[in-house]
Design goal:
By secondary structure, this protein is an alpha+beta fold. It is globular and about 35 Å long.
Length: 112
């Protein structure tokens, strides 16, 4: 599966990267919905949570901790932030490579 996110991971197209390690890359969203809007993507290609398997448990757990680490780096952890992942068409997923949005830096409205 070759997506725009895979091209960012492979440095084929530019992105404003805010964090990277062996397993994940995080970069600024090109259409932010808040003052801070960063996407966090595993370098392993997984379509979405619906396609994750038992083999992905450790990676997905590490992803949660990495999201919190990035929020602290961005200075939005104290005031709060939202973490969102979209799954399939009705869930709003447009790029079929699992990714999480970190959204914050301002007061967010009620979502659910």
């Amino acid at each position: 599966m070759s997506t725009i996110f895979k091209k960012i991971i492979d440095k084929e197209i530019p992105a404003k990267i805010v964090y990277e390690d062996d397993d994940f890359i995080a970069f600024e969203d090109i259409a932010p919905v808040a003052k801070v809007h960063v996407l966090v993507i595993p370098k392993k290609e997984i379509k979405n949570l619906d396609n994750a398997t038992e083999d992905d448990i450790m990676l997905l757990g590490k992803l949660q901790l990495t999201i919190a680490k990035i929020a602290r780096m961005l200075g939005i952890n104290e005031e709060g932030y939202r973490v969102v992942t979209n799954i399939n068409a009705n869930g709003g997923q447009t790029v079929y490579h699992i990714h999480y949005h970190i959204i914050g830096g301002e007061k967010l409205g009620v979502m659910a």
